[in-house]
Design goal:
By secondary structure, the protein is α+β, with helices and mostly antiparallel strands. α6 packs parallel to α7, α9 (406-414) runs parallel beside α10 (440-453) and α10 (440-453) runs parallel beside α13.
Length: 771
């Protein structure tokens, strides 16, 4: 009756067309799956093109944490003081392995055994910094007259020793100008500490000993270097990295798992050891590792005409993707064994597969033991100037697939919140706040969404324009006005919002409910448990028109155990306003409303709060509560379909329906009792019936058909399992979408778990961590 879904993941070339000077340059994909849609005309030596820079940063539970914890990240988390650790917090909130590349082994973190702080990981909180790709790609960059002359740092003069003139301006100098601007603007003090360059930093040839070396010029790898004049990097990057370290930054580089990068430069397949040793010798702190390789369908000898003949690839690597990423992970570990500098490892491997394929979930499983973060989807929309207005094209509105806009990128990532844990981060791609074309309201929304995800915050914008020096001396025909940039800087340095991203328990945010699953209509409410029994809430207006004031029900954001005399505190993170009120309640069934009211939310805007409750002197635990949904199509403009009870009555069966936020679609996971309750009727639990159906029965501790464990791969299995390795169920039945049919009205029943193949019609996005 049921057939196993066949994996449809694919790995495609980074190019559909190889550009040459004078061609229309397509903005190439960074994850090895093809081409994004934008293009611009290139003429001559690219002197007028905007250039890109890539920066990366490194950086935690589902059920709150101890408020007496300390936090060593860039922003101090708020403390509630004297909170008791909730009973549910005693279950593990980390399903990943502790870091094994230099940090001491630790017990998988819980708020019980760490006091709310996770240690022993290279990235205990999400990394923050600057990156080049989306905004600058591999395009020529010009010197800004407002940039100060760089001074030696610890005796090192690292801008390729140029004379600070426009003619000698190197991309290495450009990177250091960005670092100086990050420091001068206050972004470094706010936590943005990684300075990462993406593709194109390396030369088209390895040296005589087979080592990667900095590129003499800043160009695409299959372009003729004769007519391009912008210098690239030092051949040996030691001085460049030391200069960044002297400024208080960390340095990141890029490579790929195949024989070539996406922009046709030498990559690291079969060179993992020698490349890792070079990275360690230069003392870099971060490596982004892409998917691109030789493509026998498109690559020809002309593709590599500017490489030495004996270094040109002629076939793809023989190793599997898992083997290639494992080889580099081990090489980095070995190269830094005796060094104080460890290298964070970002893996693009999951982005090589569609989330409707079993292989995507197989990959999400193995990347967790190899690195600290991973790209989970295609590129966020690259910078593009409108041909008529000469203004940046707004990246919010770009829809799903590759070159995805801000909201589609968020939606792809929030569906995988269960994979997030301290030292293990889903990368939603780059932060486009600044001169990328969004309104300030949209920029607030992006930082709110990325922070509630617990995502790395990698800024890609021309930070030089944020400085006071530039505000006083702007360029002619600035693409973005100075008032907008001043507000952008305030957004990026909002300590309260950043503290949600950097919260020490490392939980991932999840969707509590949606009034419409469309990318461009309705309201989304997203929640994230924080330390100290607090919960962060984002209320997002996806439509093009202003929304009315929104009511946020406390039970629906996980604060359902209200009883007796309660004090509710809500802080608006964008205005700083704190609202406190006292209520007397009789529990979740009380008729008195328990909610937070927002102001009217503008188009593509959002409201963001941190909410907490104490009742009779005790903190109210945040319980994983929200919609449970399946994703039918990566390119869908309508989002997923929600697990829905036929009605709110005893015996109700389950089906898929359009997500509307109805009571029949909001569920609460009782991880202690291993029950899945309908929030509106908490005495009704999901039961796996013997006839292959699933429905609502009266909750009973003795009814084993109600036992439910949520696994890392997204399966809800009918048994009780505990521990730190809940990757996939090895037996039992799972919630199953009948006949793999992703349509409203399709019955959701019970069927044998297809866990060995990560059967996708049994994979769900739900609230909270595995357990």
């Amino acid at each position: 009756m049921f057939t196993q879904m066949v994996a449809v993941g694919r790995m495609a070339s980074a190019f559909l067309k190889y550009p040459t000077q004078g061609d229309n340059l397509h903005t190439h994909r960074r994850d090895g799956r093809g081409l994004s849609g934008g293009k611009m005309t290139i003429k001559g030596p690219l002197s007028a093109m905007p250039m890109l820079i890539f920066l990366a940063a490194c950086g935690g539970g589902d059920d709150g944490g101890n408020t007496n914890s300390t936090f060593a990240g860039p922003v101090q988390s708020a403390s509630n003081g004297g909170a008791t650790t909730p009973a549910e917090s005693k279950t593990s909130v980390v399903v990943s392995q502790p870091d094994t590349r230099g940090a001491p082994p630790v017990t998988p973190a819980t708020t019980e055994n760490t006091g709310g702080k996770v240690s022993g990981f290279l990235a205990p909180t999400p990394p923050m910094g600057f990156t080049t790709w989306s905004r600058f790609k591999c395009s020529r960059q010009s010197k800004l007259g407002s940039s100060p002359k760089l001074q030696p740092v610890n005796g090192i003069n690292a801008p390729l020793n140029d004379d600070n003139s426009a003619a000698s301006y190197s991309f290495q100098h450009f990177m250091l100008d960005q670092a100086q601007a990050i420091k001068d603007s206050g972004l470094q003090a706010a936590g943005y500490t990684y300075i990462n360059v993406d593709d194109c930093w390396m030369d088209q040839a390895r040296d005589a000993q087979g080592n990667l070396q900095g590129g003499r010029l800043w160009i695409y790898g299959n372009w003729d270097p004769k007519n391009l004049t912008q210098k690239g990097f030092d051949r040996d990057l030691s001085s460049y990295v030391s200069y960044l370290h002297g400024m208080g930054f960390k340095a990141g580089l890029y490579s790929s798992s195949g024989y070539r990068t996406c922009q046709i430069f030498p990559a690291s397949a079969e060179h993992e050891t020698v490349d890792a040793e070079a990275f360690a010798r230069w003392k870099i702190d971060y490596l982004k590792y892409d998917n691109c390789d030789y493509d026998k369908q498109r690559d020809t000898k002309d593709t590599y005409q500017y490489w030495p003949a004996d270094q040109r690839p002629t076939k793809p690597s023989d190793h599997t993707k898992e083997q290639l990423f494992t080889r580099m992970s081990l090489a980095l570990r070995n190269a830094t064994t005796n060094s104080d500098t460890k290298i964070l490892f970002e893996e693009s491997a999951p982005a090589g597969f569609l989330p409707q394929s079993s292989e995507f979930y197989n990959t999400m499983e193995w990347v967790r033991s190899l690195g600290e973060l991973w790209r989970i989807g295609g590129d966020i929309k690259n910078y593009e100037l409108d041909a008529n207005t000469k203004k940046p094209v707004n990246p919010w509105v770009s829809e799903g697939g590759y070159a995805a806009g801000v909201y589609p990128s968020f939606y792809s990532t929030v569906a995988l919140s269960r994979y997030v844990a301290p030292g293990r981060w889903n990368d939603a791609d780059q932060v486009l706040i600044g001169d990328n074309g969004m309104t300030n309201e949209e920029e607030r929304s992006q930082l709110s969404l990325w922070s509630i995800l617990g995502a790395p915050l990698f800024l890609t914008t021309d930070v030089r324009r944020f400085t006071q020096n530039h505000a006083s001396n702007p360029e002619a025909n600035e693409p973005v006005d100075m008032a907008h940039l001043a507000e952008s800087l305030k957004i990026l340095t909002n300590k309260d919002v950043i503290s949600v991203d950097q919260d020490p328990i490392g939980a991932g945010g999840y969707i509590a409910w949606q009034t419409d699953a469309s990318f461009s209509e309705g309201i989304d409410v997203i929640t994230k448990p924080l330390s100290g029994d607090r919960v962060a809430v984002v209320v997002l207006n996806k439509s093009d028109t202003s929304a009315q004031t929104q009511t946020v029900s406390l039970p629906r954001i996980g604060l359902s155990s209200l009883h007796g005399t309660c004090s509710i505190e809500a802080k608006n993170l964008w205005t700083g306003k704190v609202t406190t009120r006292k209520i007397s309640v009789g529990g979740i069934q009380s008729s008195e409303p328990h909610s937070v009211q927002t102001d009217a939310i503008p188009a593509h805007g959002s409201a963001m709060y941190v909410v907490s409750a104490t009742c009779d002197g005790e903190n109210v635990r945040v319980l994983p509560t929200g919609q449970i949904y399946a994703r039918p199509d990566n390119n869908s403009k309508t989002g997923g379909l929600c697990l829905t009870a036929d009605n709110s009555g005893l015996g109700s069966k389950l089906h898929l329906a359009k997500c509307t936020g109805a009571d029949e679609q909001v569920w609460q996971r009782d991880k202690t009792a291993h029950r899945l309750r309908l929030l509106a009727k908490p005495d009704l639990c999901v039961a796996f019936n013997t006839n292959g159906t699933a429905g609502l029965n009266t909750c009973s501790d003795s009814d084993q058909t109600q036992n439910i464990t949520y696994y890392l791969n997204g399966m809800f299995a009918n048994h009780v399992a505990a521990g730190d390795d809940l990757k996939r169920p090895d037996a039992s039945n799972c919630l199953d979408i009948t006949m793999h049919t992703y349509n409203a009205g399709t019955i959701v029943g019970s069927y044998k778990c297809g866990s060995s193949s990560n059967q996708v019609n049994q994979i769900w996005s739900g609230p909270g961590t595995p357990g």
